[in-house]
Specification:
- This protein is mostly helical.
- The chain has helices spanning 2-19, 26-43, 49-57, 61-88, 91-111, 115-143, 149-178, 181-200, 227-253, 261-278, 280-284, 288-308, 312-339, 346-375, 377-406.
- It starts with a helix and ends in a 7-residue tail after the last helix.
């Protein structure tokens, strides 16, 4: 009897340990905190850099656009290689180098005394930013328990959603009362350094480094197994690229809304945060295609409402819907891409989804401007609706079955 009494609780304890893997473990929280500082440092400057270039260097609008676009282009160029390096070399080493370089470049803004120097610094800064976003998100996957990974990836995005919601407002507030761009550059530098220090304390699970001895191929830089998922993300990135860059002009010229851009993005961020929280259960259950489909449809309604109801109600309600939709869709697509990748291709999977989004954003900025110039902003935003609808149709007609056939785990669906 004594033997039986001892055996029962031991069995019970083992079952509890199996079913109670902690999602919010210390290392995961550290990686999320570092991700928040990364995007806070980025977003605290973003809305004010055009003003800085105009006031400090006397740059014209076309020059401002050229200077700031270099950051995105460099980030896009670095992403494929960062995925390869994250998969091929020790995670900690790659992460520390990327985060250190990202932080140091903020000091470059302080030192740049001419427009040419600022342009060089800003363009080069996109490289470590693109690499760091891949390295840090891959680190989050590493420190998550396997049974909570899909759910954890969804919550991970809350950190940059939160920074997007508050950092621009804080930056504008500080500039309003201090009139000092130098102070903002110092704040970005200090916050980025704090993020580097936080990431330096993360303890990664010990894994044997598996060197890929095969010849370099495209699949080491872009996940070919997930190409259709990437194509879908191009369509959704296109839509958000047009919206985010031409929102203020369209709101002012067509809707007569001035000064509402900050509120729009605040509502979009609130939608992103709410959807991440609400969609956690579906991700935990592995219902990736459900989350993706729901998010895409909500976003499509938001984009359609934006152009179909050209007043303040349609304007602000669309922000909330687009935020809700993207908050469901993004982690689902990220998880689906990771689920079709082998364990030694996690970095490549992360870079693939980010590359696809960046390509879509770039095409949206470029083609949206051309369409607006020749046909008007209304035509540009109707193009957004058509491209987004094409992405939704592609998902239900082909991408969903494409994913289900290639997934490497039956627990995701």
């Amino acid at each position: 009897m004594k033997y039986e009494n001892k055996c029962v609780p031991l069995h019970s304890i083992s079952q509890q340990r199996i079913g109670m893997e902690r999602l919010w473990n210390r290392n995961y929280c550290k990686v999320m905190t570092a991700n928040f500082t990364l995007f806070f440092a980025f977003y605290v400057l973003t809305p004010l850099l055009p003003l800085y270039l105009s006031e400090h260097f006397g740059a014209t609008k076309d020059v401002i656009g050229l200077v700031l676009s270099g950051y995105t282009i460099t980030a896009l160029l670095f992403r494929p290689f960062s995925g390869y390096f994250v998969d091929s070399f020790p995670r900690r080493t790659v992460l520390m180098i990327c985060f250190g370089a990202f932080a140091i470049f903020f000091a470059g803004y302080l030192a740049a005394s001419t427009l040419l120097l600022f342009t060089i610094v800003r363009t080069l800064h996109g490289g470590p930013f693109g690499a760091l976003t891949v390295a840090n998100s891959t680190a989050a996957i590493d420190v998550l328990p396997s049974s909570r990974r899909t759910e954890g990836i969804g919550y991970y995005g809350l950190s940059n959603n939160l920074s997007m919601a508050i950092a621009p407002t804080i930056g504008i507030f500080i500039y309003k009362y201090t009139d000092s761009f130098e102070l903002l550059f110092w704040i970005a530098l200090v916050v980025a350094c704090i993020g580097w220090l936080v990431d330096a304390t993360v303890k990664f699970p010990e894994k044997e480094m598996v060197r890929n001895k095969s010849k370099l191929s495209l699949d080491r830089f872009f996940l070919l197994r997930g190409w259709l998922l990437g194509l879908n993300m191009v369509a959704f990135g296109f839509s958000f690229g047009v919206l985010s860059n031409y929102l203020a002009i369209y709101g002012k010229e067509v809707m007569g809304i001035t000064g509402g851009t900050g509120t729009y993005f605040m509502l979009c961020s609130i939608g992103l945060i709410l959807s991440r929280l609400q969609g956690g259960k579906a991700l935990r259950q592995g219902r990736l295609t459900h989350n993706a489909g729901e998010g895409m449809v909500i976003s499509l309604i938001g984009y359609t409402l934006f152009i179909l109801v050209p007043n303040s109600v349609g304007y602000y309600l669309s922000a909330l819907l687009i935020g809700l939709g993207n908050g469901h869709m993004w982690p689902a697509f990220q998880n689906m891409t990771i689920s079709v990748a082998h364990n030694n291709q996690r970095g490549t999977a992360n870079s693939t989804i980010l590359i696809s989004w960046d390509i879509g954003m770039g095409l949206g900025i470029l083609l949206g401007g051309i369409i607006a110039e020749h046909l008007g902003y209304a035509a540009a935003f109707w193009t957004v609706v058509l491209v987004n609808a094409a992405g939704v149709a592609t998902f239900f007609a082909a991408t969903k079955s494409f994913f289900l056939q290639r997934r490497l785990s039956d627990s995701v669906r």
